[in-house]
Design goal:
Rossmann fold, 43% helix, alpha/beta, seven-stranded mixed sheet, five-stranded mixed sheet, binds nicotinamide-adenine-dinucleotide, globular
Length: 423
């Protein structure tokens, strides 16, 4: 079966990997070619110029995107990324993965993603606010609480979401809390949202250890990325008794064979902006983290980091994809052949969109849930999805990713079939 998405790419590019995963699921589910075409292309894409008047009065223009891959099961949902690497194909891949993730954990959403090709560290806070507001007003016609609900991703945070919500609300003349998620608590953010992705990552990592018969206290871990996902994932794993041996960010990596003091490392990063120079550990080569002899490897930074050329270095028994798309298709096949258990992104990092959904529901209900309620419902959904994927894998074989994709793609297709084709 061939997929003729107009911009299909190959190799390590995320869109090539996303399409390859869809192709494998379609083959296994024996889906007809027309339906595969439907699922392989975005429903709606918008590309916008985002001009910025800099603090010194000069003007720069950035490219911004919003891709709604699918909204057959409900409004589109997905993060906004501010990073120099952002381009249309990357956003397309991330939007497609959001469709499968929302379907896998059975949220009433489709998938979307957005981004601006900018390095936020090179601009002042006031400049980033202006970029955010202009980007929001450029994509205003396609977002909204029942259309498409953005959230934070790489390079954006709750402050970005507050500016997006404010821009949308001012343009409508009233406050619309449910237009974005991942907001500050003071603006209707949900308790537990900030750590939800990491909590989910830790929950499935512990479930994977259990499946392999390894007690958390006998396990070791290496975490790539110490941002919103990696930082708290490392903390939750350490709290469960796992020795987190190494952590990296985009600048450096640090290692301590007996286990890092993750809280102290967090305080160091707050003070210095990087893990480099952390006094409680030794520096290590950035690239060596992926090859450490650990039980769990948690890539929680960016896509495509474990690929055909470095996969032979991976020695972990279990890889938990905190990031979206960190393992390429070629590397995935190699890890499967070696018996490495890979917990796929659409399952492993779904905690963030689950609590985003809870935040949206709370905003629509104008009723706040307690932290206990949020966390116990998150736990139920994550472990329910883990069980469903494990059962599917045991029943029909293949990898956890293939099992997760079969469940997700079948749900989206079922929604399409029920709705029919218009006209
Ligand atoms: P973030 O910007 O908060 O953190 C990213 C971290 O990765 C930073 O520590 C950065 O220094 C580091 N990094 C970047 N390039 C690196 C490299 N080559 N090697 C090592 N470290 C590197 O972003 P985030 O929100 O933590 O997102 C991380 C990943 O998780 C992304 O793939 C994102 O799409 C995915 N994700 C995030 C959420 C969420 O709720 N934030 C939810 C689901 C998935």
């Amino acid at each position: 079966m061939t997929i003729t998405a107009p911009h299909a790419s190959t190799g390590n590019a995320p869109l090539g990997n996303a399409l390859e995963q869809l192709r494998a699921a379609a083959e296994s589910l024996e889906i007809d070619d027309g339906s595969v075409q439907l699922l392989s292309q975005a429903r709606r894409e918008i590309s916008v110029g985002v001009p910025l008047r800099r603090d010194d009065g000069t003007v720069e223009v950035f490219r911004g995107y919003r891709v709604q891959h699918n909204f057959t099961r409900g409004p589109a949902k997905g993060g906004v990324r501010f990073a120099p690497s952002v381009d249309l194909d990357e956003v397309r891949a991330l939007a497609m993965w959001m469709t499968w993730k929302c379907a896998l954990v059975d949220l009433p959403y489709g998938g979307a993603k957005g981004g601006v090709a900018i390095d936020p560290r090179r601009y002042s806070d006031a400049e980033i606010e202006r970029v955010t507001r202009r980007y929001t007003s450029e994509i205003l016609p396609v977002i909204g609480p029942d259309r498409d609900i953005p959230a934070p991703d790489v390079g954006t945070d709750e402050r970005t979401m507050a500016w997006m919500m404010d821009t949308f609300s001012v343009s409508h003349g009233f406050t619309v809390q449910s237009v974005v998620t991942g907001k500050p608590i003071a603006l209707g953010g949900s308790l537990g949202r900030a750590t939800s992705t990491s909590r989910g990552v830790a929950l499935v990592a512990l479930a994977a250890l259990d499946r392999r018969g390894v007690a958390p206290t006998a396990a070791t871990a290496a975490v790539q990325g110490f941002g919103k996902v990696g930082r708290h994932a490392a903390r939750f794993l350490a709290e469960a008794g796992v020795r987190v041996r190494a952590v990296s960010d985009q600048y450096a990596a640090v290692v301590h064979t007996d286990g890092l003091d993750v809280d102290a490392l967090g305080r160091h990063v707050d003070a210095h902006g990087t893990v480099a120079g952390f006094p409680g550990a030794d520096p290590m080569d950035h690239d060596d983290l992926l090859g450490l002899d650990v039980t769990l490897l948690v890539p929680a930074a960016v896509e495509g980091v474990i690929h055909r050329d470095n996969v032979e270095r991976v020695r972990a028994e279990i890889v938990v994809e905190g990031a979206n798309g960190p393992v390429t298709t070629a590397a995935d096949a190699e890890l499967a052949a070696r018996g490495v258990l890979v917990v796929p992104d659409i399952l492993a990092n779904a905690g963030g969109v689950i609590v985003s959904y809870f935040e949206w529901v709370q905003a629509k209900q104008t009723y706040r849930w307690s932290l206990d309620t949020v966390e116990s419902r998150l736990r139920d959904r994550m472990l329910g999805a883990w069980d469903a994927v494990s059962d599917e894998q045991r029943a029909r074989g293949g990898t956890l990713r293939e099992a997760a994709m079969r469940i997700a793609v079948a749900r989206v297709l079922d929604a399409h079939r029920n709705r029919g084709l218009y006209p």
